[in-house]
């Protein structure tokens, strides 16, 4: 399965499944000085190890309960028309960050917090589909709502225990658990099934269940910090494009705070940090109907491609050292780059291959 292809979860009715508990076992050996009875020593060591195991499990359970109690007041349910998603409280002014695909084309929403039964009205501040993030603002701040604490994404490590909190399948204030499976993933959303079609770099991959309705919620560590916004579940073509179990993706917290902070301050994203060639393109195929490159449909005047001499009809086949066969592969090649980076673009024009140096602009 190509995990770079992923689908944004959509809300649908389903039967909730019970998740089994996680138990951590710690083995502790006790050496007793001056004890010459080997059999007696073995009994005491075994008893200590057996006692340590339930203590370790109890400590882990206490950590889970503490984090859930601390973070759930920062996670809300968002109703946008007939669909449901989740959101995270960004500040004490009533700003809530969520996914762009959760708000869709909506301008007003109903938001329910973990500690209130009634819904509160909210309005869209701005949506940034290119990063699948959006901010809404509550009409009033309900009592008991709490601002989330966001982690430093650079400190997220593979193997960390994480909890995903949100409203999967409309079940508000639900929690699943797992680990950070990988970091630095570049993932492209499907434009069908509710996604924005965005290509997003540096995603956090997790084994915590990401179900329809989890989108926009919180992926948190055991320090109670949000390390990411759950956004996508990988799909398995072998299962009819249904969600692949244990492979979910979250937008890293540092990107969330950067985008949401700009929206709260300026009403829009003013510095995306996303590199762009400045072209409109489409995928072309060869004589065998295989994807063969990204054909330039239009070049933005004064943009990176324009400055490098590209024009309509050129076909981009390589960016830097990465082969380009589709517009998706072009977006994925650009995703880790930044405005101002210099790279080579290889393209064909009337059957001849050319290479140009390009200084990437901002999307």
Features:
seven-stranded mixed β-sheet; 18% helix; 5 helices; globular; single chain; 21 strands; 2 domains; Pdz3 Domain; 363 residues; Thrombin, subunit H; alpha+beta
Task: Briefly summarize what is shown.
The strands form four sheets. Strands 1, 8, 9, 10, 11, 12 and 13 form a seven-stranded mixed β-sheet that branches.
Walk me through what this model shows.
The protein is of the alpha+beta class. The chain has two domains: 1-9 and 39-272, Thrombin, subunit H, CATH 2.40.10; 275-362, Pdz3 Domain (Roll). 18% of the residues lie in helices and 38% in strands. It contains five helices and 21 strands. The strands form four sheets. Strands 1, 8, 9, 10, 11, 12 and 13 form a seven-stranded mixed sheet that branches. The chain has a six-stranded antiparallel β-barrel with strand order 2-3-4-7-6-5. Strands 15, 16, 17, 18, 19 and 20 form a six-stranded antiparallel sheet that branches. Residues 1-7 and 9-43 have low confidence and may be disordered.
- The CATH class assignment of the largest domain is Mainly Beta
Beta-strand portion reads 35-45%
Distance between the termini: 30 Å
Order of helices and strands: EHEEEHEEEEEEEEEHEEEHEEHEEE
- CATH level-3 fold name of the largest domain: Thrombin, subunit H
Chain-averaged pLDDT: 84
**How many structural units, i.e. domains?**
2
The count of strands amounts to 21
Poorly predicted ranges (pLDDT <50, ≥5 residues)?
Answer: 1-7, 9-43
- Radius of gyration (CA) equals 24 Å
Give the class from helix and strand content and strand pairing: alpha+beta
Label the CATH architecture of the largest domain.
Beta Barrel
Q: Main beta sheet: strand number and arrangement?
A: 7 strands, mixed
Global shape: globular
Percent range for helical residues?
10-25%
Count of DSSP H/I helices: 5
């Amino acid at each position: 399965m190509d995990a770079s292809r992923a689908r944004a979860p959509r809300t649908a009715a389903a039967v909730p499944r019970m998740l089994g508990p996680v138990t951590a076992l710690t083995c502790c050996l006790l050496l007793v000085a001056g004890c010459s009875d080997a059999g007696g020593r073995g009994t005491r060591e075994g008893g200590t190890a057996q006692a340590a195991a339930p203590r370790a499990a109890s400590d882990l359970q206490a950590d889970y309960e503490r984090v859930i109690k601390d973070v759930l007041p920062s996670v809300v349910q968002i109703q946008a028309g007939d669909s449901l998603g989740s959101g995270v409280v960004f500040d004490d002014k009533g700003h809530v960050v969520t996914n762009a695909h959760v708000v869709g084309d909506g301008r007003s929403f109903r938001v329910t917090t973990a500690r209130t039964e009634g819904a509160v009205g909210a309005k869209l501040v701005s949506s940034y589909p290119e990063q699948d993030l959006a901010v809404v603002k509550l009409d009033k701040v309900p009592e008991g709502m709490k601002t989330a604490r966001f982690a430093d994404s650079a400190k997220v490590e593979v193997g960390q225990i994480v909890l995903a909190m949100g409203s999967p399948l409309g079940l508000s204030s639900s929690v699943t658990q797992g680990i950070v499976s990988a970091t630095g993933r570049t993932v492209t959303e499907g434009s069908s099934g509710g996604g924005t079609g965005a290509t997003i770099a540096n995603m956090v991959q997790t084994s915590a269940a990401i179900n329809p309705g989890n989108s926009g919620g919180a992926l948190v560590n055991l320090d109670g910090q949000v390390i990411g916004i759950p956004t996508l579940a990988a799909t398995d073509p072998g299962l009819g494009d249904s969600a692949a179990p244990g492979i979910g993706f979250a937008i890293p917290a540092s990107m969330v705070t950067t985008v949401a902070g700009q929206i709260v301050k300026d009403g829009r994203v003013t510095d995306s940090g996303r590199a762009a060639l400045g072209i409109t393109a489409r995928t072309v195929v060869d004589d065998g109907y295989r994807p063969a490159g990204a054909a330039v449909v239009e070049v933005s005047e004064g943009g990176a491609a324009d400055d490098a001499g590209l024009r309509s009809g050129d076909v981009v086949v390589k960016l830097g050292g990465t082969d380009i066969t589709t517009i998706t592969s072009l977006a994925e090649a650009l995703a880790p780059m930044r405005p101002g980076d210099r790279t080579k673009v290889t393209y064909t024009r009337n059957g001849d291959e050319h290479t140009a140096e390009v200084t990437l602009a901002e999307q």
